[in-house]
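PROTEIN DESIGN WORKSHEET
SECTION A - STRUCTURE
LENGTH: 201
TOKENS:
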């Protein structure tokens, strides 16, 4: 199963944002990586700005180029605002829903929990991180995985009210995916219109 396994701090420094979660390196070195990272940079071209936005979205959600392109084309075929639909579809990925539920501390950790068969959807084990969760489906922790320390640590003190499109049941260690999130509710700092413009060129 393909995924990005390179240094995450370098990627976060490139965008100047902690896109993979809290990062100590980012606070110490808040400039791009590389030999000339701390020097004055040349002005980025319009194309470069759009490309960087697409790359940021890819790395944030842990999606590779071909997958991302396919998701964009699917969004473009759907009625509505393409950029918003793209982000909504990314939010519906099972690994992202597990992360939003607080079951895992990061999307990478959520992906691992899904791959290792610790997550159930409507009571059935699903081990495909890219699985698209539908409104009304219930995503939870498999019974024998509920005692896992990593899950208990992630859920401790987690504020589920941050995400109004998900309803959490603490007793069952499961959450109901109520509906696709509105763009205003998605906290990611992504300018989706730039991605649409990039693919429209």
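SECTION B - SEQUENCE
RESIDUE ASSIGNMENT:
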């Amino acid at each position: 199963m393909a995924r990005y396994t390179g240094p995450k701090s370098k990627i976060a420094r490139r965008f100047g944002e902690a896109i993979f979660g809290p990062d100590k390196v980012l606070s110490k070195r808040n400039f791009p990586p590389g030999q000339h990272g701390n020097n004055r940079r040349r002005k980025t071209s319009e194309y470069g700005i759009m490309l960087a936005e697409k790359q940021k979205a890819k790395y944030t959600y842990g999606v590779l180029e071909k997958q991302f392109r396919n998701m964009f084309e699917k969004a473009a075929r759907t009625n509505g605002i393409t950029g918003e639909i793209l982000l909504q579809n990314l939010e519906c990925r099972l690994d992202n829903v597990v992360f939003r539920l607080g079951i895992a501390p990061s999307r990478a950790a959520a992906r691992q929990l899904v791959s290792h068969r610790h997550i159930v959807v409507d009571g059935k084990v699903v081990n495909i991180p890219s699985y698209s969760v539908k409104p009304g489906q219930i995503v939870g922790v498999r019974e024998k995985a509920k005692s896992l320390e990593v899950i208990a640590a992630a859920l401790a003190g987690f504020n589920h009210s941050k995400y109004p499109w998900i309803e959490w049941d603490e007793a069952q260690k499961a959450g109901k995916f109520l509906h696709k999130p509105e763009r205003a509710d998605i906290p990611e700092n992504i300018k989706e219109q730039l991605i649409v413009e990039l693919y429209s060129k």
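SECTION C - NOTES
The chain has two domains: 8-89, 93-179.
The CA atoms of residues 51 and 135 lie 31 Å apart.
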